[in-house]
User: What shape does this take?
Amino acid sequence: MSDSLPAHGVRDLRQKVIRHLEELAREALDNDVVDLGLAARIADALLSLIRASDDLDDRGRLAVRGAVDYFVLNRDEEPDLGPDGFVDDARIVNDTCDAVGLPELKVRVG
Assistant: This one.
C-alpha cells in the first residue's frame, strides 16, 4: 500500500506549517524568547520538503509528515515558547533532510 501524499494531503501539510508559523509570529509579539527567525527557517525547510515529497518514496513522505507534525507541537522535547525552543525541531528537520537525501535543505541553527 502506498502512503503517497494526494494533492489535498500536501495542501494540508502546507497549511499546518503556515498556520503554525503565523501563530508563532503572533506569540512573538508578546514573548521576546520566541526565536521566530529559527522557526521561519524550519518552516521554509519543511515547505521545501513538502514540495519535494512527490519525488520521495513512501518512507520519505512519512518522515516529512512526521517532521511537520513535530514542528506544530508546542510542547515537545523542548517547549517551543521557551529559550532554545526550536533547536529540537531543527534537529528533527535536519535528520529528515538527511534521511530523504536532501541535505541542502537543512536548517542553520544559531
Observations:
- The longest helix spans residues 7-28.
- The chain has a mean pLDDT of 89.
- The chain is about 60% helix and 0% strand.
- The radius of gyration is 14 Å.
